[in-house]
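TASK: fixed-backbone design
INPUT:
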């Protein structure tokens, strides 16, 4: 997989697992971790997407590159149709939030190429239900962000 780091005018939220990630443009902007409880990885990915979009909008970010490791989530978000079913509220919220950005690229990535999201997600696993914000980077994330920005791939744990 090839990965191009976004330019400094683009920002990138990450989400994944049963919890969700952070925003960076090669350097830390702001982070979040969401423990949504017992759910599917697909629903958790949508939660992370929605929370990342909300955070990016609140920070005044207008150009966004969103990477998700759920191909189905990426496809349904690109579809931009009103949705029905268990994910409908999340998908409809995401579609409304996308209208707040000047440009937003939504890409599928493998989890192995996005260690920063995996690291942020791991923080939420032991957290109480709900969202936790990180205006300053947690320990060890800077080296992981550097690896993600350089396109470093890791073997699956």
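OUTPUT:
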């Amino acid at each position: 997989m090839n990965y191009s780091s976004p330019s400094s005018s683009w920002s990138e939220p990450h989400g994944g697992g049963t919890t969700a990630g952070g925003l960076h443009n090669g350097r830390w902007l702001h982070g979040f971790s969401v423990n949504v409880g017992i759910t599917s990885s697909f629903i958790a990915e949508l939660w992370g997407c929605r929370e990342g979009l909300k955070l990016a909008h609140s920070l005044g970010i207008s150009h966004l590159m969103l990477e998700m490791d759920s191909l189905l989530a990426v496809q349904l978000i690109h579809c931009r149709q009103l949705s029905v079913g268990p994910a409908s509220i999340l998908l409809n919220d995401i579609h409304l939030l996308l209208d707040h950005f000047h440009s937003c690229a939504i890409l599928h990535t493998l989890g192995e190429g996005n260690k920063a999201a995996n690291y942020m997600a791991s923080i939420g696993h032991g957290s109480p239900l709900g969202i936790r914000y990180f205006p300053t980077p947690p320990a060890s994330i800077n080296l992981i962000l550097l690896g993600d920005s350089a396109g470093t791939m890791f073997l699956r744990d």
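COMMENT: Residues 1-6, 14-18 have pLDDT under 50 and may be disordered.
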